[in-house]
Structures are given as structure tokens and as C-alpha cells.
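step=predict obj=DNA polymerase III subunit delta' n=334
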Amino acid sequence: MEGHVEELKAIQPVVMKQLQTIFEKNRTAHAYIFDGAKGTGKQEVAMFFIKLLLCLNPSKNVPCETCRNCKRVDSGNHPNVKQLEPDGQFIKIDQIRDLISGMTKTSIEEGRKVYVLHHADRLNTSSANTLLKFLEEPDGDVTAILLTESYQAILPTIQSRCQHIKFANIPRDILLKQLQEQGVTYSMASTVSMLTYSLDTAISLANDEQFAHARKTVLKLVETVKKNVHEALLVVYEDWLTSFKEKNEIEQALDLLLFAYRDIVAIKADQKANFTYPDMLQSWKELALNTTFERLSQQMQAILQARQNLQRNMNRTLMMEQLMLNLQEGYTFV
């Protein structure tokens, strides 16, 4: 566990310190909401905390990993630990009733009982109200851990009964390292780590042919914009509009385009930034030399404007033609 604890501390230093302090000061609350984006380690940290609470001989606020309780938590066989996933779209009232009756049975061992609700934002009104009663008057020494990716979707009455533990997004350098360990190239890892904090989502993007094609199309567009508007429009008609049909695909492509200009700004400012397209640096350097900060700022504004036009459902061909003209304006070299 030593290595595992260190890993969790690297990903969630603040949360781990918070939970270890709670344990050390013996201030365990009745209920917690672990709130953070997908891939931020909520489940792993929850299991660490449960083990710590139930461990027979913890040391330095870390579970021993070898006692009977630690082993049963690991194998999912501890009678005092219950986990609940949504049944279909929602966590239903019967699931909560079963959980509560399971928690109050005498067959359960002495000591603390812990239950984990996965996707707690999917409680429907009746199941949330049933849970609320139990949160207000738990039977004995009970701790609830509610996991969620959307805190604001949890009823305020439940929020107010729980201690809110906010998970930070995974630091980008850790995600980059994890991706490369999974065999993703540095340049692709640099791109996908700008779009998501989740390792799983990042890996599936990196291995998606459609995404690789999107990345290529965006880079081709940046290259042609500097030549002339006609070539850029040709790329729009032949590559862009044929590749990106869905709204979310266009949105992602516009984000990728924005990141390209952000890279160019970073080069011009001589920042040692984490680039989105490290494989394009040579080409970007040349672009950076032939433009001004003001111009780059206008181009980024134009892309953000296109994103707003997309949300307003503007005709996509028209939107892209307008964007090309705006990106084009003011280039001093032909």
C-alpha cells in the first residue's frame, strides 16, 4: 500500500491530508460527498479511507493492509461495508431501503459501518428523501460516502448533511506520464491531456482513429491559413465540413484549433509551456515570428466567436467561412 498511498497523495494531496487529519483527530463525520471529475481517484481514495477507518492496527494514518479487516475490505467481503450503484438511470427508493435495512441488521459486526453511493447525483426525489432521514438519524456508528461528478445535481438538503470533499483535477504532468506509460506517444498525449482529466477518456481518445484524423485536419487548417484564404476555404470544404458532422465534433475541433494558436502565443512569449502540439514546434516558431500578439489575440477571439455561433446554431458553412476570413485578415506575408 505504501506505493499506492504515495500515488494517491501525488494525485490528491489536499484530499488525502484532509482525510488523514480527520482520522487522526477522531473527527469522522456521518457523511461525506467526494466530488470531482471522472478519473480523479474518488473510488480509490474512498477505499483508502474505509480501510483506514476499519483497520485494526493503522500506523501514521495509513491502514496496515495485512489485518483481517483490511483484507476483507480489499476483497469486498467486509459485512460492514456496502456499495451501491444506480439501477439503470437512477438510484431507486428500494435500493436505499435495502441498504438501510442491511445497515441496521444485527448480523452485522460491531464497529463502524460504511456505505458508498456511486453516482450519488442520480438519487431520484423519493430515494433522496429516504436517504435524508437515514443521514439525519443514522442507526449507530455509520459513515456514508457519496461519490459524484456533478455536485450541483445533488439536493441541497443532502449537501447540507454531508461534509464536502472537493477533488482537484489530476495535474497534467501526471496524466502525461500515465499516458506515455500506456504507450501513447508524447505528442498525442500532450493533445488529449488538454481535453480531459480522465486517464480512461484520454486513452480512448488517443486510440481513436476519428480523433487522430480530427487532429490532423485542424493542423492542416492552421498551416493553410497562413498561405491564403482560398486554400484555407478549400480545406474547410474538403476536409473540415466532411469530417465534423456532429455539433460536439465541431466544438472539439474548434477547441483543438484554439489550442494551436495558444501554442503559438506561448512560443512567441518564450514560455516553456506544456504545448498541445509538441510535434509542430518548428512550424509554430516560424508562424510566431511572422505575427504579433495583437493579431494572435484577434485570431483566438475569432475562434471563440465561432464557438458561440455554433451554440446559436448558425449555418456551419457560413460560420467556417466567416472564421477563415477573420483568421486571415492582417497577415503581412503572402
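step=describe
The CA atoms of residues 280 and 295 lie 20 Å apart.
step=end
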